[in-house]
Amino acid sequence: MIRTVCLLILICPTVLFAQQKTRDDKVREDRAKVESEGFWIYNDLAKGLTEAKQTGKPLLVVLRCIPCEECVKLDDDLVDQDPAIQQLLQKFVCVRQVSTNGLDLATFQYDTDQSFAVFMLNADGTIYGRFGTRSHRTEWFGDVSLTGMAKALQGALELHADYPNNKESLAGKHGPKPLYPSPEKFPSLKDKYTDSLNYSGNVVRSCIHCHQIGDARRDYYRSRNTPMPQRLIFPYPHPKSVGLILDPKEKATITKIVPDSPADRSGFRSGDEILTLDNQPLLSMADVQWVLEQAPPAGGNVSAVVLRDGKRVNLTLELAAGWRRADDISWRVSSWGYRRMATGGMLLAALPAEERQEAGLTNPKQMALKVEHLGQYGAHAAAKKAGFKKGDVLVEFDGRTNLLREADLFERGLTKLKPGDKVRVTVLRDGKRVDLKLPMQL
Questions:
Q1: What are 224-280's pLDDT values in tens digits?
Q2: In terms of DSSP H, where are the helices of 77-201?
């Protein structure tokens, strides 16, 4: 069985301290239980690949980190209590990967801000599809479901049955060469971690969590004073960012089109079943995200085939320059690092309309970002030390007055500014304009 797991140790301190057992104890017990049940291959991809080659079955890899009770809903609902999914899993060689130490990043490319990621593969490494999408810090029901997972698994089995006749259409599911072949090779991680867990010592501290891969990628650019790629700032765009509201119970069926969105302007309709995107067969919402992840930030066209009223219709999703910026990144773990780098630890939110009126900010294109929270410790206290206060309203940043969202400010700080720069920021405080200097950080 897939046991409960979580990417972030720090999100559940209350639960952790309430337990008598240490996290190391839990991890060792988790391993012992899974291995004794004998169904899941535990943290051994090489063994899974070998068994898949020997049996001819497809490979299912679930990427999950060290167990945490805060994530219990997702695992219980998706696997432990669903007999239909259990029957489908019997047709796969199933691997439960509880850390990313030594993970082949050329094959396993996914949204590292997520709480879990599922890969369905051939034994030769060809990827049939992915499952697992997230658009909120805690809510998941709009992105994944029991039924959706079952249909993704069934779809993977159908692709496997037709393999290798369909190999060419699956080529795009394998991503570009990564910066480093595995997580522990990144400069910010190589002196702290190895390619395996340390079960004889502190196993929790030896684990490279998924979000640390994303952190290491960002650190790579930031430490070199190199502009961070927009693709890294706005990773794995959710389908709704281009106007596609998809049914989590289906592979890729549209329930709603956002008016005047790229999807709307491109001719997609509610009820369309997206069969292929960029010539790739789709098994889930995560597969749609994968195609969007590969689309260039500068814009371009993505081919699509939809099933509409029983007929196949060819469409082209037209993406304008900067289309990625429409995605919401506030829920992401990575935004914590962005705040350290670009806002000195400030959590910013758009000023509500009523408060804008009271402040005399009647121009809707005028920047008005309120400091909702001010970091108190370490690098996240930089804004506090620079004189910023909770309740301040940022109206100008580095000479720009049109940064309407926190994400816009992130992008400015990460692409146009460097660590060590001190940026002039104007805030409204008690009805007066105050000029401050905000340091940009690693």
A1: 999 999 999 999 999 999 999 999 999 999 999 999 999 999 999 999 999 999 999
A2: 83-89, 146-161, 167-170
Max Cα–Cα distance, the chain, nearest Å? 73
Q: Which residue from 130, 135, 112 is spatially nearest to 327, judged by alpha carbons?
A: 135
Instruction: Give phi and psi for 291, each to the nearest 5.
Output: -65, -40
pLDDT along the chain (442 residues), means of 10: 32 43 83 87 96 98 70 51 89 94 97 91 98 87 91 98 98 97 98 94 92 96 96 97 98 98 98 98 98 95 98 98 95 95 98 95 96 97 98 98 97 97 98 97 96
Domain that holds residue 26: 9-184
Residue where a domain stops, chosen among 325, 341, 367: 325
Q: Is residue 208 part of a domain?
A: no
User: Is 290 found in the same domain as 171?
Assistant: no
Does residue 57 share a domain with residue 166?
A: yes
Does any domain span residue 233?
A: no
Number of compact structural domains in the chain: 3
Q: Read off the pTM.
A: 0.91
Q: Which of 153, 164, 84, 83 is nearest to 123 (CA)?
A: 164
Residue 323's φ and ψ, nearest 5 degrees, are: -60, -30
Phi–psi pair at 102, nearest 5 degrees? 75, 5
| 223 belongs to a structural domain | no
Place of tokens 């195609």: 291
CA gap 310, 272 in Å, rounded: 10
The residue out of 325, 348, 381 marking a domain boundary is 325
- Residues 317 and 340 both lie in one domain: no
Backbone angles phi, psi at 53, to 5 degrees: -65, -40
> Alpha-carbon distance 315 to 269, whole Å?
11
The answer to whether 93 and 55 have CB atoms below 8 angstroms apart is: yes
Q: What is the pLDDT of residue 3?
A: 37
404: tokens are: 């309407």
